TrEMBL record:
<dbReference type="GO" id="GO:0008360">
    <property type="term" value="P:regulation of cell shape"/>
</dbReference>
<feature type="transmembrane region" description="Helical">
    <location>
        <begin position="44"/>
        <end position="65"/>
    </location>
</feature>
<feature type="transmembrane region" description="Helical">
    <location>
        <begin position="103"/>
        <end position="127"/>
    </location>
</feature>
<feature type="transmembrane region" description="Helical">
    <location>
        <begin position="171"/>
        <end position="188"/>
    </location>
</feature>
<feature type="transmembrane region" description="Helical">
    <location>
        <begin position="12"/>
        <end position="32"/>
    </location>
</feature>
<dbReference type="GO" id="GO:0032153">
    <property type="term" value="C:cell division site"/>
</dbReference>
<feature type="transmembrane region" description="Helical">
    <location>
        <begin position="289"/>
        <end position="309"/>
    </location>
</feature>
<feature type="transmembrane region" description="Helical">
    <location>
        <begin position="72"/>
        <end position="91"/>
    </location>
</feature>
<dbReference type="InterPro" id="IPR001182">
    <property type="entry name" value="FtsW/RodA"/>
</dbReference>
<dbReference type="GO" id="GO:0051301">
    <property type="term" value="P:cell division"/>
</dbReference>
<keyword id="KW-0472">Membrane</keyword>
<feature type="transmembrane region" description="Helical">
    <location>
        <begin position="321"/>
        <end position="343"/>
    </location>
</feature>
<dbReference type="GO" id="GO:0005886">
    <property type="term" value="C:plasma membrane"/>
</dbReference>
<feature type="transmembrane region" description="Helical">
    <location>
        <begin position="195"/>
        <end position="212"/>
    </location>
</feature>
<dbReference type="Pfam" id="PF01098">
    <property type="entry name" value="FTSW_RODA_SPOVE"/>
</dbReference>
<protein>
    <submittedName>
        <fullName>Rod shape-determining protein RodA</fullName>
    </submittedName>
</protein>
<feature type="transmembrane region" description="Helical">
    <location>
        <begin position="147"/>
        <end position="165"/>
    </location>
</feature>
Amino acid sequence: MNNYIKTDRFDWTLTLLLFLFFLISCVAIYSAQATGQYGDKNFVIMQVFWYIVGAVIISITIFIDSYQYKKLAWILYGFGIFLLVTLALAPESIAPERNGSKNWFVIPGIGTIQPSEFVKIFLILALSRLTVSHQEKVIEKTLRTDFLLLLKLGLVTAVPLGLIIREDLGTALVIISILSGLILVSGISWKIIVSLYGAGASLVAVIFYLVLNKPEILEKYLHVQTYQFYRIYSWIDPVTYSSGSSYHLMKSLSAIGSGLISGKGFKNGEVYIPEAHTDFIFSVIGEEYGFIGGSVVISLYFLLIYHLIKISLDTNDHFNTYVCTGIISMITFHVFQNIGMTIQVLPITGIPLPFISYGGSSLMGNMFAMGLVYSIRYHHRSYMFSSENSINS
């Protein structure tokens, strides 16, 4: 009977979705690496290996209940900050600079590890605990207490954001999206939220104006790298920069556009896209499987996000709800940004497509996030005639 209960509490729907993403990832990467630019490297085998590692991470994570993660939140957050500081100070032999950024540790025999992929999850746990702790201490909710919570959330986020933004703008945007999602569900007054988001929109508009008209101000005071400006320029006018910064975008548009409704078929892609197995994997899917294939992938992400929302609503533990919200915000932004940049809806930022793009750090980070969801689902039980629906086993 006990085994039956444990099996019943296991999230089979999430497992099916992850398995489908695994199949799509392997097929798409196999096609992407067939262009010959990678030599003898077999990224499919490596992706299978990272999925196995991810499965092990989930297997460990699922048996630790959310109460333990709540206690470990600040320790993990501190560890993440330590990794980012170490990365910034590490010598070239350990953390080489690539494409003007210093984002990876080189580990002999394994490859590269990107700490920011794990810091995102640590931040979700820390912000969730911070929000719950604040709410437990506040007896009477006022605009002052809401503003205090907002200030706390902002300060905790600012530390990793400041360490990441100069090296990896894409991950910095993901961190901002995580913070935005948690602010929306934290109970902060809508008067503050509307004012905050209005100010944020105004700031974005000012930044765009400076990028287009006075980029030297951003270079001088914010130390923004010159190549980051060209991502905006090439997004707005890709034809002018087709031989330079918009080369990937033009190739992506050609690949997806040539796929039409049903695509060209497995391994029949004709458009050469550098590094197609990572950030531009959706371009490969669009070319070989067309609008239908792309729609299937997007639909799976909708199902995943819907499932995560359902889990967050089923639990009556606020910490679990906030953790799910942070994960939902992270994945939603990843999907929207990655697919958006391949079809010129958004600028190119180098954000991978979750569970499909090749990358060990990205996949392990996402599988750790899914492990937290598995844990929330596994340690949650509903009882008829009971007002308490969440019991840690």
